[in-house]
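re: that complex we talked abt at group meeting.

here r the seqs, copy pasted straight from the sheet so there may be weird spacing, ignore it
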Amino acid sequence: QKEVEQDPGPLSVPEGAIVSLNCTYSNSAFQYFMWYRQYSRKGPELLMYTYSSGNKEDGRFTAQVDKSSKYISLFIRDSQPSDSATYLCAMSAKDDKIIFGKGTRLHILP
Amino acid sequence: GAGVSQTPSNKVTEKGKYVELRCDPISGHTALYWYRQSLGQGPEFLIYFQGTGAADDSGLPNDRFFAVRPEGSVSTLKIQRTERGDSAVYLCASSLYPDTEAFFGQGTRLTVV
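got the structure back, here u go
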């Protein structure tokens, strides 16, 4: 079992819909949780960073962490064609390396 | 200041040659990470520096791979006797301290022919 599991997709949704992306993990030591967006042939761009269970909102993006279930989610409201990209979840334990999921390819259909 | 800078952006080398990939982190960032990413995969951890020392090099695939960060700022990833399987995008990230937000560069695309 990989430490971080993420469905690779692709996930296609119509413009304006709410997108839900998620990851599960097995290491209960993970404390820090991140979501990155990666466009083709570009480096990952940090979208959200959180270190506690619960929700964190930033504009159209909401990150949710459920440590009891070892499950994290990213919600995108009012999705736009420009949101089409690969979304990577990432996490780390204290003072440790960051481990990434495989990424989910998202397509927003105009 | 500027973001994480990686040079070169593209590198084509012949099998068996030696290559060096450079990473300039965000100024003042103490933690620096190297990852390798193949097509359709997430970044794969290689090595993590805290200051000048390698805090974790467990991801380096074999002894052909080596990385340094002599002054706690710029880092160089060195690959000896390159193989075609080393072809990938090599990503560098930095963070102010461990356990804080990590920011990536645009990567170096290495092609071994």
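couple things i noticed - The interface with chain B takes residues 6, 8, 31-32, 34, 36, 41-46, 49, 51, 88, 92, 94-103 of chain A (CB under 8 Å). The first strand of chain A starts at residue 4 and ends at 6.
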